[in-house]
Amino acid sequence: MTDFNFQPVAPEEPPVHWVCPEGDGEEHNGSLEFVTYMATQHFQTVHADLPPLETSSADTVIEAHANLTRAVQVNAAPEELAALQDAVLDAEGVEEGDPWRQPIGAQDAYPLGAIVTHNGGTWESTVAANVWEPGVSGWKDAGPGIPNWVQPSGAHDAYALGDIVRHNDKVWQSDVADNVWEPGVFGWTEIEEP
Fold first, then answer.
1. Full strand arrangement of the beta sheet holding 164-167
2. Is residue 133 part of a domain?
3. pTM of the model
4. What's the mean pLDDT in 99-103?
5. For strand 115-118 and strand 164-167, is the pairing parallel, antiparallel, or unpaired?
6. In a domain, 99, yes or no
7. Domain that holds residue 172
8. Are 28 and 22 in contact (CB under 8 A)?
9. Structurally, how many domains does the chain consist of?
10. How far is Cα 158 from Cα 161, in angstroms, rounded to an integer?
């Protein structure tokens, strides 16, 4: 790793010049040292809540840029996947509210938030790339009125604190977050129908 002391040196014939933003009026070359210096200054300005960088290096800046690029790509992946799934469903002529059909795989799976009808009910996908049958896993009742309780299969379709469901001809409200329990067993309070 190469450390730099960030003392700008004017090259004999610089390909690019910048005027120092600190206002010293000096022009600086487009060297890696200067770019590293500017990146360090920008980082410390943007992230004033973090301890200051004592030294920086080209390797540190390159690694930070690579990490930021990866984070941006990872954060964008769910939206890109949903857009691709929507495009596939559109190409197949599948519209919101159509009857559910068994996906072949991730390429034609239902995206998060997709609405389908199945077995007389209306369902909303609670997971991305949903290939499961509504009522089994990854879907919540999206029909009119109070939804019927469906056994969650994990955190992706657990009930939130305050959710209201119908179960065994009674109306229940979840008393806990991430509730996977059956109403009447734990984590639910029977309430009057609103």
1. 164-167, 170-174, 188-191
2. no
3. 0.54
4. 95
5. unpaired
6. no
7. 146-194
8. no
9. 2
10. 10
